[in-house]
Every structure is written in structure tokens, then in C-alpha cells.
């Protein structure tokens, strides 16, 4: 374009001597002492750029836990008292995207309604990590506007390809593929995995993945209560102390999607949990306009109110908005819900601080 001679320009290039990166590093004690401690993506839970595994028996809500953690990272919200590093999350929904997508929308419309838009992307199909799918996946991820900090593979079984997860050689190949994904993107790669059909003490298949993982977390469920376990032998934390069991409970919430009322479950800390919510989680307590109206109505009444009365005292709020706002306030532990003397009609009251 400048009418120059490209060949002449190229001819002026000079070779630059570079020092190749050594394949083998040898450290003395001073080098070891100066090594930086692990950096956490989720405080005390997931290390940055690590390999992690989340496992439990079928039906124990492992995908709910993985998604809950993902959405907290994607918004920068603390995960049940654990600070997070805000960043892009990519979720491989290999067992089906419809249900998981609905849960993600439900989380955003309820627990995350006062937060910025989540940095969250979904791969809505299976990816065989030990095939050329991996190269295609890495290439697609590297075209995004930001590098991910967390990639969730849900589940191992649906991304394992043609191998046998009980064979050490095949599991080695899968772990190597996960490591390639982790190294290419810089993200923590979390593998969601099952336990055996009649086994609740360890994950299914070869123990190669457990040996390679930086973090292993077990989800244990009893009714509506979940325990997030990191202590051995079920869990593992390679380069840090194991975190105390995080005790969660499920709560059903309602939201609108495409003008249709939907419902899903979100996770909250149980009252008997040792984990305290830090000041950094105060944003969760910010109230929307409808929530503020309900709080003011309850303060004005000075007593528990039923659904119809609440609707009247909040300016005729429609049923869907009122239901969602009540669910949110119960989830934020600002109001309580109980039945009246007849045992049928629900009534809501302010929680005493």
C-alpha cells in the first residue's frame, strides 16, 4: 500500500537469539521457600488453573452444586461464605442442556437478580475429550472475548468417548486430555462424576483421576440437605488444607421465563453450617422494589400477613411477582413463612434480627 518493496523489507530482518524454556526444572530449598502459595478461584475450595472432581451418587444433586458454584464465579458472588474470583465460566452440559439452562435462568432471576449479568456460557452437547473434539473445543474457547477461569465437564461418563473408565490406560488418556484443556485455557477444569451403582464411598472407575486431581469434593444428600465434603477419604485437597464440610439446603423458587411461570431449586446455607457469610456477600441482601414494598407492609402491619392481604398492602402486586418476591425474601432470611391456626393458609412475618 505504501509502494515499498516487501522483499527488501524482509531482507532487513535479523535473527534474534532466544533461550528455550528448560524441560526440566531443578529447585533448591531457597527456590522452594519462595514458591507462591496456591491461588484460589473459590476460597479454600478450588485452586486457579487446577484439576478438580465433584462426585456423588446419582440423584444427589451434583449438577445443582456445580451450577451454583459456577454462577457464583460468573457473577463474583461469594459461594456460601467463600470468596470467588470473578471470571468467565464455560459449562459443558453433556447430559442435557434444557434442564440445566432452566436452572441457570432460575438462579439468575432469583438468587442473582441483584447481581451483574453472569459471565456464563453453555456448551449444550457432549464432547469426547479424547477425540479431535478437544481441539475443536479449545479453538472455540480461544475465540471468546475472555479466557475462562472455570470449565465444568458434566459428566465424565458423557465426555469419556469410546474408552472404558475402569481401565487405567483409558483414564490416563482422559486425564491427559483434561490437562491439555486446562493448560490451553488457564482455567480450573472441574469433572463432574458418579459413584458406583452400589457404592457410595468412592467415585466410579479407575482412581487415576483422583490421583491427578488437585481437589476432590463429594456431595452427600439426605432429603433437602446437602453436605459438601472435602475431608478424606471421600475428598482431597492436594496443596492446601481440606475445607470444613459446607452444609446446604435446597429451596424451591419461582420465576418467569418466556411469560410462563417456572420453578427450580436453589441452594442456601443451613442454619447448622460452620460457614459464615462475609461482608463481601452483602450485595445478596440488596432488595428490589417489590421486596422493599413487602418489607414495608409487614413493618406497618406489625404482625404476620396472609397472601391476599400482602397483595392489597403492596399496591395490588400481581400473584407471580408477589410469589417470587416472597420466595426471595425467605431465601435471604429476611422473612419467615408459616401456616395460620387452621394449618392451611400461609402467613409471612419479618425475621427478628
Sequence stretches where pLDDT stays below 50 over 5 or more residues: 276-284
**Biggest sheet details:** 10 strands, mixed
What coarse outline follows from CA principal-axis ratios? globular
| Radius of gyration from the alpha-carbon trace, in angstroms | 25 Å
Oligomer: single chain
Order of helices and strands: HHEEEHEHEHEHEHEEEEEHEHHEE
Supply the helix-strand structural class: alpha/beta
Q: How many beta-strand elements? A: 15
Percent of residues in beta strands: 15-25%
What share of the residues lie within helices?
A: 25-40%
Mean pLDDT, nearest integer? 88
Compact overview of the structure:
The protein has 353 residues and is α/β, with parallel strands linked by helices. Helices cover 29% and strands 24% of the residues. Strand 14 and strand 15 form a beta hairpin.
